[in-house]
Amino acid sequence: MDMAEHILLRHRDIPELDRVDIYRRDGGFEAWKKVVTRMDPDDVTNEVKASGLRGRGGAGFPTGLKWSFIDGQNWPHYVVANADESEPGTFKDREIMESNPFQFLEGLAICGYAVKAEDAYIYLRGEFWQIAHKLDQYIADMESAGFLGDKLFGTNTRLHLHTHLGAGAYICGEETALLESIEGKLGQPRLRPPFPPAYGLYGKPTIVNNVETLTNLPVIIARGAAWYKSIGTEKSPGPKIFSLSGCVNRPGNYELPLGTTFRELIFDHGRGLPEGRKIKAIMPAGASSSMIIANEEALATPMDYESVPKVGAQLGSASVIVIDDSVSIPWLLNKTVHFFTHESCGKCTPCREGTYWMMHLTDRICQGEATMDDVALLQDVANQIKGKCLCALGEFSIEAVLTGIERFPEDFASATEKSDS
Amino acid sequence: MKALNQKHADEIQAILAKYPATDAGKRSAVMPLLYLAQQEYGYITRQAIREIAELSGITETEVASIIGFYTLYVDQPSGKYRIQVCTDLPCALHGAEEFVEKLCENLGIRVGEMTPDGLIKVEAVMCLAGCDKAPLFQVQSSEGLEYYENQTVESALELINKLRQG
Question: Backbone dihedral region of A155: left (phi > 0), alpha (psi from -120 to 50 degrees) or beta?
């Protein structure tokens, strides 16, 4: 099920697509011009609704529906592109912004028009310092070409784009923490509701969309919702960038229709595992992911928002980490738990304290000093975190822990053997 | 003394202009201003904290809390070049942990330490969104932040030699 052409990673087909003249020659900004000069903002939202596009940041929420929640009684409106890409295993937005930046910026502009925002912010993780500086230049290029600014295409539409750099905090990928961070505060999530479409940046109605989500918009407008729906599955339409990493021969980004199987991604595109190694587990959504036992059923599962839960995980941001038979699951959990402990923002107790205790327990298991009682205690701590956190970070920190213990018990039996005997 | 404002008046105005002309908008300038100070001095000085607090309309304590919360800000001298190696799960599966250990061994330091000449600090850090190009690291310095991908201990040592020669 190969894509005949790249839709999101178009720079792989067209060299130098990061030049504004090359992007224009290829039909760039036509969709932007079309919405500003010939479409009502609500028509844009309806077209995106009809396309079935779902948010690519991880939650898979229908994009057009999210836009329709924006509060029309409170002004101004803001749009924010979430370019905080920090999930271990995810590196797709970076490639888009580095190599196909104008399609992303055009998508952001289209979103701004649809929800009647006049200012849009791009929140990039601090490590994307170089990308932010390039984007500033690309935004300036668009301004000089008349695609951004005031009186766009001779209408009264105005739109200004701004970059804002984070400074090293995974939590800022959570949309309300991200908004707090733009406001110059600690990146800590807000209590919701109200959600950003009602109460967002500076307390104003705000739409936050992921970079990849926004990059879909120019093609949906240019080619129409019906065409877009012909790619992917009925409930998960469109192309998706799968970030493949871990124990595979050819890690990288692969743009494929939603609904492509794990087997095709890992064995055809990723060229399988190094010789002599066998696939043991798959984490389909980065470090936040449940661990799937990589059996025949799992490998045959289509990667879309409906099918992945049937094998006990979520598609999330589709950052597929492959684990081979040489990897010890307790070691792996220790890695992910260290990550979440480091990145917990400290605002809510279950996450702040829970990740800390999980870290000590997984340390003990990895050092060979634990008994099966410690494994049971780890499970107990994880279950106490479950459902009690202010945001998804805390909830995600236990996915691999609980499924790892449940689905790979033999790894824990051998890790605790010495102390149990 | 308004050291930052004297040297970078235009840049500071450009930063403030990105955000609404309100008190809340002014506060948004705090993170970009911290980057500006860090680039200017190598780390964020007490004097810079005072000045940034005034520019963004918040207290010095609030500015200091932001420096503490976000890992890319430093408030003390910490090596001219900070080499930050990602050792998170996908990179660890590609040998990043052995890479950083060996690199440090060659430099005669432990992970997280600075070389005796005060030029190079090697740290193990969280995901850098380059999981398909491990081992990789970023070099943070007053000139900004640069990525180095698909590295070997040899290529990293070669780079460090170049950095040392300035």
Answer: beta
CB-CB under 8 Å, A91 with B130? yes
Cis status of the peptide bond prior to A76, with omega within 30 of 0: yes
When CB atoms are compared, the residue of A93, A184, A339 closest to B88 is: A339
Q: How far apart are CA B75 and CA B60, in angstroms?
A: 13
From the options 1.20.1440.230, 3.30.450.20, 3.40.50.2000, 2.60.40.1220, give the CATH code of A329-420: 1.20.1440.230
Tokens of A123: 């929140």
B88 and B140 belong to one structural domain:
yes
Q: Give the tokens for residue A88.
A: 């271990």
Domains of chain A by residue range: 10-229, 239-324, 329-420
**Is a pLDDT exceeding 60 seen at residue A1?**
no
Residues on chain B bordering chain A, Cβ-to-Cβ distance under 8 angstroms: 18-20, 22, 24-25, 27-32, 34-35, 56, 58, 65-66, 69-73, 88-90, 92-94, 126-132, 138, 144-147
Tell me the C-alpha to C-alpha distance, in Å, between residue B78 and each of A52, A92, B5, B61, B136: 50, 32, 24, 22, 21
Which range marks the domain in which residue B21 is found? 3-69
What mean pLDDT value characterizes chain A?
Answer: 96
Within a 10 A sphere around the Cβ of B10, how many other Cβ atoms?
8
In this complex, do B129 and A164 lie within 8 Å of one another by their Cβ atoms? no
Asked whether the predicted pLDDT for residue B1 surpasses 80, the reply is: no
Residues of B in contact with A94 (CB under 8 A): 129-130
| CA–CA distance, A82 with A124 (Å, rounded to integer) | 7
Q: Give the rounded distance of the alpha carbon of B21 from its chain centre.
A: 29
Tell whether B61 is covered by a domain: yes
Residue B76 maps to a domain:
no
Q: How far is CA A302 from the centre of its chain?
A: 19
Same domain, B58 and B94: no
Contact A201, A80 (CB under 8 A): yes
- Superfamily holding A10-229: NADH-ubiquinone oxidoreductase 51kDa subunit (3.40.50.11540)
Asked whether A353 and A388 are in contact (CB, 8 A), the reply is no
Query: Looking at the structure, do residues B96 and B153 belong to the same domain, yes or no?
Result: yes
Binary contact (B145, A129; C-beta < 8 A): yes
Summarize pLDDT for A25-66 with one digit per residue, the tens: 999 999 999 999 999 999 999 999 999 999 999 889 999 999
Least Cα separation, residue B115 to chain A (angstroms): 23
Q: Which residues pair with A209 in a beta bridge?
A: A81
SS3 A163: strand
Q: What is the pTM of this model?
A: 0.96
**ipTM score assigned to the predicted complex:** 0.94
A46: helix, strand or coil = helix
Alpha-carbon span B113 to A105, nearest angstrom: 40
Residue reference for tokens 């070389």: B115
Chain A positions in Cβ-Cβ contact with residue B70 (cut-off 8 Å): 126, 166-169, 187
